[in-house]
# Entry
Amino acid sequence: MRKTLDNGILTIEADSHGAELCSIRRNGTEYLWQADPAFWGRHSPVLFPIVGKVWEDRYRVDGREFSLSQHGFARDMEFSPVRDEDNEMMFRLEDTAATMEKYPFHFCLEIGYRLEGDEIKVLWKVRNTGDGTMYFQIGAHPAFLYPDYVPGTSGRGFFHFGGKKDIGYILISEKGCADTAHRYTLGMDGEYMPLDTGTFDKDALIIDNSQVDKVTLCRQDKSPWLSLSFKAPVVGLWSPPGKDAPFVCIEPWYGRCDRTGYTGDIKDRDWMNALAPGAIFESCYTIRPEVR
# Structure
């Protein structure tokens, strides 16, 4: 079931399936990828209770082993609408017998969207409803249309990182997990990172350690098209390798895939979040479609 918000500046749509944002329009222009499965069949899935992959799709909790596929299960589940106001909508997901077989923690996850002028606030709330410490990750995966996409050409615009230049990143390696032994530096043209059809040939670029808190997707003339602001310590940048896709993803994460070969307990995974019984984690990020 889709719901719509419209404040006279922005119009957005979100679906109760996965609580997924499905459309962002300003002045009749669509900014969000429309999920053509020829490239990628999603718009903006929420990643929970993990971001990325666990090593060989297995992980351990207090000596017990469980299986989870990439990015967890929330993106493929039906949420319940719990708030529907003029400028805000909220969806809720709680654990079930089926989720407990994959992820042995009781939880309440709320995903919301609020319009504030020319900005979209994406709201996350995770509550531990169990009686032990809960370990989780949460992340975003929104895909934005390139503003100057022309098939058969190589240039795709630029990223701008709020004036920051010396930005390090790591890459995905074996079995979809991170190679943490090697670090690289983004190739920049002054304050701008050029984007082309080969930028993501090695899959996602993972920028960790809170190096950036804003990413702006710019047109070929370097004018801003859309920006994301966030407090998340990790952000992934991605477009499907080798497909010349018309979109790019800017993904704030509270978490990350396993490092290659990791076989330890969930609590010791890189970039995990811990919640005491009854505790609540809250965060948000902001999407701002720009106009000339």
